[in-house]
Specification:
Blueprint (H helix, E strand, L loop, with lengths): L1 E3 L5 H11 L14 E5 L3 E6 L13 H4 L4 E5 L12 E8 L5 E8 L1 H10 L1
Parallel strand pairs: 1-5, 3-4
Antiparallel strand pairs: 2-3, 5-6
């Protein structure tokens, strides 16, 4: 999950993740399409939930949330039903001087272990 104000760098971080997965396609925000899928070493499923506030129908994202790839959800607070029980949440805050502050919060052993490796 990626949280942060507009312009904080959520899509930019997703572009970096895609580069790490050897995805050569240009990664752009799925604001209007809601979801974009990219193929690399792992499948990258990029969801922008900004326009999903109040939507209560099944949009078929479950199959991607449970698969072996990586799912990035921007603006997850607008669609809490999309948020898996276990997840890694990265909050990005744009500071006054233009720097960014990242806060990581893991829920579940898999993501707690991942944070240990990254720390």
């Amino acid at each position: 999950l990626l949280d942060g104000d507009l312009g904080a760098g959520k899509t930019c971080l997703t572009q970096g993740i895609a580069k790490g997965l050897d995805i050569s396609r240009s990664v752009t925000s799925p604001t209007f399409t809601i979801q974009k899928i990219y193929h690399g070493r792992l499948l990258l499923n990029h969801i922008d939930a900004y326009r999903l506030e109040g939507v209560h129908q099944d949009l078929g994202f479950d199959e991607y949330l449970n698969d072996e790839g990586l799912t990035v959800i921007e603006w997850s607070q607008f669609s809490p039903d999309l948020v898996p029980e276990e997840h890694l949440k990265i909050s990005i805050q744009l500071l006054e001087n233009g720097d960014r502050e990242f806060t990581f919060h893991a829920l579940g052993k898999k993501y707690e272990d991942l944070l240990e490796v990254l720390a």
